[in-house]
Design brief:
By secondary structure, the chain is an alpha+beta fold. 23% of the residues lie in helices and 23% in strands. It is built from 7 helices and 20 strands.
Length: 417
């Protein structure tokens, strides 16, 4: 085969691996749920806050209960009911099979009065009522219900119980390959998933680049030895790229990265979409929640756990939000994913709702971060870290305009002398 054709095949493999990664990651999440007894078109409720044992989704939060449902609209519409929530924050994120958040129901958009909504597939007829048209037949519905601390758990559960789904009984699709599978299984699954959830018209130019792989009728055995080398090189290239960017954005400004405006609704930014599928699957769009990452002293923006750090907010520069904010600490995996780490006080995040959070006399706020518990009054505002490297993410729910438009910047996390 000519050099040009081998290069085109390598590019096709890299493009296809990256393009299909969100499909693969959602199918993996769906399979995990099935192993735990979840059914399609039925909400499963997670009735405890995520801790160091939570490994189902990367970068989980410790602020909300989750309710999740994998939806198949190929057999007809599905209805979703949300309860009244009073002053409590609730969002129901609806993601297509490619992880785009095409709709969010709840506090910001539909209000806290509850309601019933009908989800219909891309070709389904729909009449009257509160209808949400979905771009793909497979949809991931993910609800977040604010828990205002230990005293609020039972009340939050009562609200969560009011989230329900009604739809036809369908089988879970699959099984499909996972991200670490060999290219043969990965692309075979990608081909199946793309048939179940056809790409958008706006993706056609990207799909055309995949043509040398023959995903319309994928047969791995048809490739020669030199073609296999080209495919494997393309896959390796895409895997490496997927570990870069993601929730960390394009760079750091005064010690923090800020999310891309395309986060959660990626359009044709396939590189960002793939990176977020690895490092922040199901991240909300910035208008709903902003995810900022602090810049550490180690490669990969990680912090050294055996050193001590402080985040100081002046009294007039606390995070500008309409709902709530929290600072979460995670250990990092070799694949660029983030999970909570075990600690002696079972504190995984700290924020404006943390019980006993102490402000300084002038109204400013210090958060103390490190492996060793700080002495005296500082222990009240301690966010424990592991001995090894860790990452810091700050979430701001319902950010105010000054945060959305870049007028507000977070103070840098500083090393404590």
């Amino acid at each position: 085969m000519s050099t040009d054709k081998l290069q085109a095949l390598q590019a096709a493999a890299a493009t296809a691996w990256r393009f299909a990664l969100p499909l693969i990651e959602i199918s993996t999440t769906r399979s995990r749920g099935q192993m735990n007894g979840s059914q399609m078109n039925v909400f499963g409720h997670m009735r405890r806050l995520a801790d160091h044992r939570a490994r189902a989704v990367t970068t989980p939060n410790n602020d909300t209960f989750y309710s999740t449902a994998q939806v198949d609209l190929s057999h007809g519409p599905v209805t979703v009911s949300l309860p009244p929530t009073g002053d409590r924050y609730l969002s129901l994120q609806l993601m297509d099979a490619y992880t785009n958040s095409f709709a969010i129901l709840g506090t910001r958009t539909t209000g806290n009065g509850g309601g019933t909504y009908t989800l219909v597939g891309p070709t389904e007829a729909a009449e009257g009522g509160q209808v949400v048209r979905c771009p793909t037949n497979h949809v991931w519905a993910l609800a977040r219900i604010l828990v205002d601390g230990p005293h609020d758990v039972e009340a939050a559960k009562a609200v969560q119980q009011g989230i329900s789904m009604q739809g036809p009984a369908v089988e879970t699709p699959g099984p499909f390959a996972h991200r670490g599978a060999g290219w043969q299984d990965y692309f075979a699954s990608a081909a199946q998933l793309m048939k179940l959830n056809p790409p958008m018209v706006m993706d056609q130019a990207e799909v055309d680049l995949m043509a040398p792989l023959g995903l319309d009728d994928f047969r791995s055995e048809r490739f020669s030895a030199e073609e296999v080398v080209a495919i494997e090189a393309g896959v390796a290239e895409a895997k490496a790229a997927s570990k870069r960017g993601g929730l960390s954005g394009a760079g750091f400004i005064k010690g923090w990265s800020y999310p891309s405006g395309r986060l959660g609704d990626f359009g044709q930014d396939y590189a960002l979409r793939a990176a977020v599928a690895v490092s922040g699957l199901a991240a909300l769009p910035p208008i709903e929640a902003m995810y900022m990452r602090a810049q550490g002293d180690l490669p990969g923006a990680l912090f050294e756990g055996l050193r001590n750090w402080v985040l100081h907010f002046p009294a007039d520069a606390l995070p500008p939000v309409k709902s709530f904010w929290s600072l979460s600490l995670y250990e990092a995996t070799d694949e660029g994913q983030f999970y909570f780490t075990a600690n002696p006080i079972n504190r995984y995040a700290i924020g404006d709702r943390t019980e006993g959070l102490a402000h300084n006399a002038d109204g400013s706020l210090d958060i103390w971060i490190g492996h060793a518990e700080p002495e005296g009054a500082r222990a009240t505002n301690w966010l424990p870290a592991p001995e090894g490297p860790f990452a810091l993410f700050l979430r701001a729910y319902l950010p105010k305009p000054e945060l959305l438009d870049g007028g507000y910047h977070f103070p840098a996390v500083r090393l404590v002398d």
